[in-house]
């Protein structure tokens, strides 16, 4: 079922955004922390307290679901709604990036790198 | 061996979580590593060892800490030292000056302090209930008892207010 009101979920915080991005495949907590740090090139580091709280919030919102529990570790994955919300966030980010580039070409930091 | 453990008493008010973290870190620098916490969170037992740069962090949980919660922190390199009244004592080595954190964004810090506020309220509820029930005459009997009761009430309300202010400041950072 498609989400009718995205304003309940969006915009996602940086941490939440990355948690959803990596939960494209089922992962447990520590694997999420490592993967987020890697793919964000060290710009986003998520502590265990923050992550644990995010699990319960996202589970309550129905964006992620626990898929299995193994050796005291819970594995989570995106739900249908989670995918939908993430896709909408990505669409909005694209618009934001395009506008940012148009409005401030002198600020293109990534071109210099 | 008598010198292996050192016991210190320290009264810690309910909103002094960060002061407590700093104090434990200072103790670790002197080679005293927290071993257990007891007696209404006033008694701290330390094990003597080599001085170390250690980061202590508190988390708060209403109810018992679940296995997956403990496992997640352990995976991330945190050692669970002890817990008392929902206060979870975590520590991790401070490596190359980088302080590890268990809470890494404002939203989750706000939630942490909200849980602390709940624990705070829960721990003081028995006293408040006692105050307004018969059979607790002792509390209002003499001027001295009344003064003690009012002082306790005042401090509690003051500490709770400080926590509320802390949460509000995080919610709306100054421009």
Gist of the model:
The complex is a heterodimer of chains A (113) and B (175). Chain A is of the alpha+beta class and 113 residues long.
Kindly describe this structure.
- The complex is a heterodimer of chains A (113) and B (175).
- Chain A is of the alpha+beta class.
- In chain A, 54% of the residues lie in helices and 13% in strands.
- Chain A contains five helices and three strands.
- Chain A has one domain: Arc Repressor Mutant, subunit A (Orthogonal Bundle), CATH 1.10.10.
- In chain A, a hairpin with a 2-residue loop joins strand 2 and strand 3.
- A three-stranded antiparallel β-sheet of chain A has the order 1-3-2.
- Chain B folds into two domains: 92 residues, no CATH class; 66 residues.
- In chain B, the strands form two sheets. Chain B has a three-stranded antiparallel β-sheet with strand order 1-3-2. Chain B has a three-stranded antiparallel β-sheet with strand order 4-6-5.
- Helices cover 46% and strands 22% of the residues of chain B.
- Chain B is of the alpha+beta class.
- Chain B contains five helices and six strands, in the order βαβββαββααα.
- Chain B is globular.
- The longest helix of chain B has 29 residues.
- The mean pLDDT of chain B is 88.
